[in-house]
Design brief:
The complex is a heterodimer of chains A (about 250) and B (about 280). Chain A is α/β, with parallel strands linked by helices and about 250 residues long. Chain A has ten helices and ten strands. In chain A, about 35% of the residues lie in helices and about 25% in strands. Classes of the chains: A alpha/beta (about 250), B mainly alpha (about 280).
Chain lengths: ~250, ~280
């Protein structure tokens, strides 16, 4: 099941450059929340704070709180936290040295799961959820790099799902894909929200409108507006949101 | 008109590239051909199983030198490859910017350029004089010091080629940094790292100068790693500079064996890697 996230006074820096300036946001479980906003508005930084990836880069700093299912993520061990908060990146990044099968079970195997049966069962389940099983079931031992771009991205989604997180962060997962592959991924996201809380960063407002239950608009490191997607797109409360979604800037 | 000029220029440039390639290949094949031609005639089964004969006497072989070189290269590899690779991991994955890593990188660059005879003298002073005798251990140690900077540099370059997104993918799955490095980053860079290590091994297999001060050479079998030991390059050097025709012949044969050893090592490494990646 998905879990709720509540973000309080979140601030983040790259060196002396503050990219998030006090974000307060409630994220509803088992919903798709889209984060939109112009380049450099802090939306990627925001999702990277939730699984504490932000702080893996040198010179970064975070302040504030993120509560996942009642517990602050900053009180948890980051490595353990990332097992319950999965992430899919903008560019598909399968492990080049591993086969399709090894990629999917990497998170489990490298964390000590040895049972071949369990691993195989999880691999099939995850690949089915990522709508990739039928395409790869006969060549699980091929390199992950042998797949097309869209398939690689679904492989990365399967890899993230195999760890069984409760929250899934997606940082522009379809921005490098063609329209058909994008449709696949969007369809997938709609199905996944039954079991996961999903946050998706996107540049594409139509995409947000198609898949997100709620949408948050970020600008210059601040959360301008957050509400049901239909409200944001048809009846924005803030002038800046309206300007952005009608294409007057950004 | 313009088109013809372009095609002409194109053809001329290609001609220059081909000529440059040929110039680069001539000495390569020249040396190889010369060594094979001279070495083959002196090479026979005896050469691989016999010890050197007394001055001027016909026959004899370099069995002890071949084994000696293999032993010292093995010692050097056992020290140099792990130290080099682990240092490179530290420099790329843990600490790219501190004074320590800048210092290590600088020292590595300087060491790469140092004439190998100086390494020999240093080990002679630090190890041979202190232990009181020449030895295979001192020879292997000297070779490992030549290997380490080469391996650090090549491994570092290969690790840098692994995209940061691969590491992030590992972290994002809840895999610890150590496991991400050992199980994901290293295998991704393995081909290049192995090639770099093999080149370093090949490079030290032919080193002569540092062994003159450390392993010394030996006309007989060494009974332990604590004794002076024969090595192919040293034996070749001594035979080639001697006044005897038979020894010159043997030096050629030794050279051929040395080159073959390096080639075999390379092919072997490639074969091992290929069978593992499939």
């Amino acid at each position: 099941m998905g879990q709720s996230l509540s973000v309080r006074k979140l601030e983040a820096w790259y060196g002396s450059n503050q990219t998030l300036k006090g974000i307060n946001m409630e994220i509803i479980p088992n919903q798709v929340t889209a984060i939109i906003g112009p380049s450099g508005c802090g939306k990627s930084t925001f999702v990277r704070c939730i699984n504490r990836m932000h702080e893996t880069l040198p010179g970064t700093k975070v302040k504030g709180e993120i509560i996942l299912d009642g517990e602050s993520v900053y009180d948890q061990d980051p490595v353990a936290l990332r097992k319950s908060v999965g992430m899919v990146f903008q560019k598909a990044n399968p492990f080049p040295s591993m086969s399709i099968y090894e990629n999917v079970v990497a998170g489990l195997r490298l964390n000590g799961m040895k049972s071949k049966q369990k691993l195989q069962a999880t691999a099939e389940k995850s690949l089915r959820m990522a709508a990739l099983w039928d395409e790869v079931k006969d060549r699980l031992n091929y390199s992950g790099m042998s797949l097309s771009g869209g398939q690689q991205q679904r492989l990365c989604i399967a890899r993230a799902l195999a760890v069984e997180p409760s929250v899934l962060l997606m940082d522009e997962p379809a921005s490098a894909l063609d329209p058909i592959a994008t449709t696949h991924i969007e369809e997938l996201i709609r199905q996944l929200k039954e079991n996961y809380t999903i946050l998706i960063v996107t540049h594409n407002m139509q995409q947000a409108a198609r898949i997100a239950d709620s949408t948050a608009f970020f600008l210059n490191g601040e959360l301008v507006e957050h509400g049901p997607t239909s409200d944001i797109f048809t009846n924005p409360h803030d002038k800046r949101t309206e300007d952005y979604i009608t294409g007057r800037f950004g | 008109m313009h088109d013809r000029l372009r095609k002409y220029r194109n053809r001329m440039m290609m001609g220059i590239f081909i000529i440059a390639t040929l110039i680069a290949l001539i000495p390569l094949f020249g040396i190889l051909g010369y060594v094979v031609k001279n070495g083959l005639s002196a090479l026979n089964w005896e050469f691989f199983i016999n010890l050197p004969k007394a001055m001027g006497a016909p026959g004899g072989g370099m069995a002890n030198s071949i084994v000696g070189t293999l032993i010292m290269v093995l010692i050097a590899s056992l020290i140099g490859i792990p130290v080099g690779i682990l240092t490179a991991i530290y420099l790329t994955e843990y600490d790219r910017t501190s004074w320590l890593s800048i210092g290590v990188r600088f020292a590595t660059d300087v060491l790469t350029g140092i004439p190998s005879i100086i390494v020999g003298i240093v080990i002679y002073t630090a190890v041979v004089l202190r232990m009181g005798h020449f030895s295979a251990l001192a020879g292997g140690l000297a070779l490992s010091i030549i290997m380490i900077p080469l391996i650090i540099r090549s491994t570092e370059e290969m690790l840098k080629l692994v995209s940061h997104s691969i590491r992030e993918a590992g972290y994002a799955l809840g895999i610890s940094k150590v496991k991400t490095i050992l199980k994901i980053v290293l295998p991704t860079a393995a081909k290049g790292i192995i090639t770099g290590a093999m080149l370093a091994v090949a490079r030290v297999s032919g080193e002569t100068a540092p062994l003159l001060f450390t392993a010394l050479g030996n006309q007989y079998w060494a009974r332990s790693l604590n004794e002076p030991i024969a090595a192919l390059p040293v034996q070749i050097y001594q035979y080639a500079t001697s006044p005897y025709k038979e020894w010159h012949q043997q030096a050629w044969a030794g050279s051929l064996v040395l080159i073959s050893l390096v080639v075999i090592l390379n092919l072997f490494a490639r074969f091992v890697f290929r069978s593992r990646s499939n």
